[in-house]
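Posting this for the archive.
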Amino acid sequence: MVSLSDLLAVPALLFFHLTWLCHSLRRPLLLVSALCILSNPAAAVRKCRLFGLTFLYLAFSKDKKFKVPKEKDPASFFPSEMGGDGSKATGATYREKTVILIRHGESTWNDTFNPGDRNKLLFILFYIPNMLKALANEVYFFVSGKDSESWFFDAALSSKGVGQAEDLRRHLKKEKMRLGSLGNPAEERAVKSLLAVGEESKPSSIVVSSNLRRAISTAAIGLADRFAVTSEDAGDDDILLLPCLQEISFNPDALSILPPKGVAHPTWCDRDIPGFAPGKFSQLVDTKLHLGNKAVDSNGLVRLNQFAEDVFDDSKLPFETIIATGHSLFFRSFFQVFLPRGTEHISKKKKLVNGGTVSVTVREATLGDGRKEYMVDPRSITVIYGGFGKKKKG
């Protein structure tokens, strides 16, 4: 019978043998690495800049240093019939749009550093081997000149994350077959919008994404059936990168590896999406609004407000439904900031699960002095797939 002490010895034994192997091969490895780097110095320089950017954000980023403005309640700007607790202000005008939020699948960063729903003991036991695997991948990307790939920086989807995006795709396909019998009008509308049902030639919705690779990949994989039917007839139905959706964090996995307005190269999981022709992924991703990474001295609240403004900016998003793929902390903060202060809802405390999808109505009030205020109607929150915390649907 294998004892606990034997199990605990496994990581140390693996670490010893790997260290011995690296020590034995260090000279030929260093020589090969040097030759690879010298063969593509531009890629090596760019990777070094990314490493420098990582330390800059870790040391000086203020992205998470903000507080939800308690003194300003979104509900006070909207009458009760719109989900608020105020009254119609003189000269005020109101608009509303549907926003469907999709959280990305698990990333390689999560796979290395977060146990998630895995067995905690096994995660601890294999932490060192998993870290060595991650470091080996990072070194390989560096010496091979793959400057658009990284395990840690702008982390891509892990194999588990790909499965979560594919689960969303399967769920939507199943729900499409049940349209007319879902029993919830908001859910019916959301499924139709997500798959552009009946709107293949001119969708009334648009897909936007964070500028981070795991969110882009989740949109491409999870909504692949939409793009398979719309792309030919609707040439402009694509994934528009919206920089304000970038995750609220100072970690390197929350920094975009994509150059400003650059071509979004497919990661390992984007090269063979069922229903996609070769080369389709890069054509699908619209980077015209991507101007680079978030500012070091800015914070998440600035981008949350920008996202609300962008939703109603018809020069950017002239659609009634906005489908946004993004991140857990951003979405939780979104609910904390724009739900009425007196509303108790799980979305304020728990993260949307990986692949989780929820539909909400966002309202805009343009006051008499020209100021604009925003609110999520608490009555409109509808889980389409997954859910918050451990509450899951689908």
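DSSP finds 13 helices and eight strands in the chain. Residues 15 and 132 are 9 Å apart (CA to CA).
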